[in-house]
Amino acid sequence: MINPMEQAKQALCERILQAAERAAAAGELPSAELSGGVEQPKDTANGDLAANHAMASAKVMHMAPRKIAEALVQHLDLTDSWFKSAEIAGPGFLNFRLSDKWYQDVIDAVEASGADFGRSDVGHGERVMVEFVSANPTGPMTIGNARGGVLGDALASVLDRAGYDVWREFYVNDAGNQVALFGESIEARYLQLIQGEDAVEFPDNGYHGDDIRELAKLIYARDGDKWLDAPSAERREAFVKFGLPYNIDRMKRDLERYRIHFDQWFLESTLHESGYVAETVQLLIDAGLTYEKDGALWLKNTDLGADKDEVLRRANGFYTYYAVDIAYHRNKFVERGFDRVIDVWGADHHGHAVRFAATMHAPVLGLEGRKLDFLIMQMVRLVRGDEVVKVSKRTGKALTLADLMDEIGVDPCRFFYNAKPDTHLEFDLDLAVRQDSENPVYYVQYAHARICTLLAALEEAGYAVPKAADADMSLCSTETERALIKQIAMLPEEIRLAARDYDPSRINRFAIELAGCFHRFYNACRIKGEADSILCARLKLAATTRQVLENALTIIGVTAPEKM
User: Fold this and answer.
1) 521-541 burial by CB neighbour count: b if 16+ within 10 A, else e?
2) What are the b/e assignments for 417-448, b being 16+ CB within 10 Å?
3) Full-prediction pTM beyond 0.90?
């Protein structure tokens, strides 16, 4: 059993179709093909699963839905199945109750899979690259990079669990105008250290952060005034060669602390040095998809379905970021053979994503059969209580990712930022550190720690967690216990849907609901002091919940503490 709830739905559909065939053979239903499906109702008062086959087939069968339902129930065989009963409701809906066998099989499946419970092969090994963060290496990681980091990493994690072959990549913009300005900014701060701030004008559009001053001081501490009389171009080049690796190493440290590990840090400069950008642009030229205007080379993007054309090469001969992006994505698909690429971008890139997707459809690029998708995330507003946390543009100081992790810890950062991507996020820093049920990450982690404490106490009393085969889960028959097992069973389906919809926040919501189900079970169902058979079944249920909570938290990169 890999996906218990979905497998139950499929098995039920098969039983219903078999019932229809028997009813048709008996002359009670026409031989028309039966349609319809099985769903898990929100309100389980009338059943665990509901089927609408009678309603969906009424028109083609020319029969009242209830008459169809009666014939189906009459010929329905639930022997040795995951279902113990079927009832007709309303005008012809069929409601089913899951049997003890299904609940037992769920516990068996978690025990058999352990940390791998939830994995599936729906991705069939498709090679997928998730490119995320990709912040400019001209400064430290900011909180603006924090949400994309978590969403990209958690998405890659659910894709991996869903059976895709996943690659995480950080694209390093180590070329172009921003890097040139980075070198100019360090140069100005270096000269100011030697000659005084009033003697050296700082570029208006330069990088004003304290990190630039820090780099200048490091260079001065190493080299003194060695660069004072050097040609400006040589000096800036040397400062970039020092500053970029320094910043990239700092980014790597911050992201590793953030529990994000990339398979590759891809340097933009390699595309230029290899001639790959020029080669890609030449393909577009040869295909007749470009024209010249005002000395610049333009892409006929409107011919490809976009709302405007794009500059590929400026009049000064430098390639634009758009041209480099085309080359980079061609490299992903053609040179490295990825079947699918997912770019995690901010809301301000939405228009660019639409236009770029149109560009990538150009046949000359050779990407037929490859898929480029975008996960566009909305903006984040940081608040403390009722006050918005503001960034001072005047001083150039910004709250960095390292600052945020220092203030609230990695777990709250990852849990809170892994919210639904297409909604604006209000991140309450005060809530993130509260130790009560209002804080969702605390609520989930506390459930895990609570179970660990329970298991340890029972072990001291002489009760070890039994094997699934030795626990009679039919004794966990209350609605609270059954609700907990049904929630446990949903993890594989939540992973599948999170991968399908590019929405890893589903795992957050699953974990919160599972924690809630456990807390309700803990308050309603006594364990210690019960008869040994009931104690063992409930003990196994608690231990199974602990495993699945840990699995869910691991997917989103949050720890599962044993004590709190």
Assistant:
1) bbeebebeeeeeebbbbbbbb
2) bbbbbeeebebbbebbeeeeeebbbbbbbbbb
3) yes
Q: Which amino acid is at 124?
A: H
Residue count (the chain): 564
Mean of pLDDT values over 523-549: 96
Phi, psi of 487 (to 5 degrees): -70, -40
| Percent helix, strand and coil across the chain, each to the nearest 5 | 55, 15, 30
Are 33 and 13 in contact, with CB atoms under 8 Å apart? Answer: no
Radius of gyration for the alpha carbons in the chain, expressed in angstroms and rounded:
30
Write a three-state SS string for 417-451: HCCCCCCCEEEEHHHHHCCCCCCHHHHHHHHHHHH
Alpha carbon 506 to its chain's center: 9
* Segment 440-456, tens digit of pLDDT: 999 999 999 999 999 99
Token pair 């953030």 is found at 258
CA distance 126 to 338: 8
CA atoms within 13 A on the CB side of 473: 26
Give the DSSP letter string of 50-96: EE-HHHHHHHHHTS-HHHHHHHHHHT---TTSSEEEEEEETTTEEEE
Please report where in the chains the tokens 């100081």 appear, as a residue. 397
Interatomic CA distance for residues 423 and 381, integer angstroms: 12
Calculate ∠ Cα 547-552-558, nearest 5°.
105
Sign of CA dihedral 123, 125, 129, 130: positive
CB-CB contact of 50 with 94 (8 Å): yes
Q: What are 285-306's pLDDT values in tens digits?
A: 999 999 999 999 999 999 999 9
Amino acid code (one letter) for 246:
Y
- Which segments of 119-228 does DSSP mark as H helices, in order? 143-161, 177-195, 210-223
CB–CB of 194/220 below 8 Å? yes
Q: Give the whole-angstrom CA distance, residue 251 versus residue 237.
A: 21
Tokens 């995320």 belong to: 132
Residue 168 backbone dihedrals phi, psi, to 5 degrees? -100, 130
Look-up of token digits 């046949």:
363
